[in-house]
Amino acid sequence: MATQAAVTSKVIEYDASGTKSKGLLFWDDAVKEKRPGVIVFHEWWGLNDYAKKRAEMLAKEGYVAFCADMYG
Questions:
Q1: CB of 22 within 8 A of CB of 33?
Q2: Contact 9, 50 (CB under 8 A)
Q3: How many angstroms separate the CA atoms of 46 and 49, rounded?
Q4: Are 13 and 21 in contact (CB under 8 A)?
Q5: Overall pTM surpassing 0.85 (yes/no)
Q6: Which of 6, 19, 54, 59 could cross-link 26 (Cys pair, CB 3.0–4.6 Å)?
Q7: Mean pLDDT over residues 55-68, rounded?
Q8: What SUPFAM superfamilies does the entry give (predicted)?
């Protein structure tokens, strides 16, 4: 577990079967070694602050977390 989390986020564009989509990638910039990744999917109403906060919490625990925006 990271002791001093320096969580960073970045918009990532990706292609899913020809459909252009975006998501948010969260990671602790203080961690330099490899770490596990987690995909966070939002509820039916879209990518909101709740999903983003969960991804940020995972990043503080030492994961790389990607919030996929299923609606683009």
A1: no
A2: no
A3: 10
A4: yes
A5: no
A6: 59
A7: 95
A8: alpha/beta-Hydrolases
What is the total residue count of the chain? 72
**End-to-end alpha carbon distance in the chain:** 32
- Can you tell me which residue has the tokens 């320096």? 6
Cβ contact 45:70 at 8 Å: no
| Three-state SS at 28 | strand
Q: Is 69 exposed, middle or buried (0-12, 13-18, 19+ CB in 10 A)?
A: middle
pLDDT exceeds cutoff 80 at 2: no
pLDDT in tens, 7-48: 999 999 998 889 898 999 999 999 889 999 999 998 888 888
Q: What six digits make up the tokens of 22?
A: 């975006």
Amino acid code (one letter) for 6: A
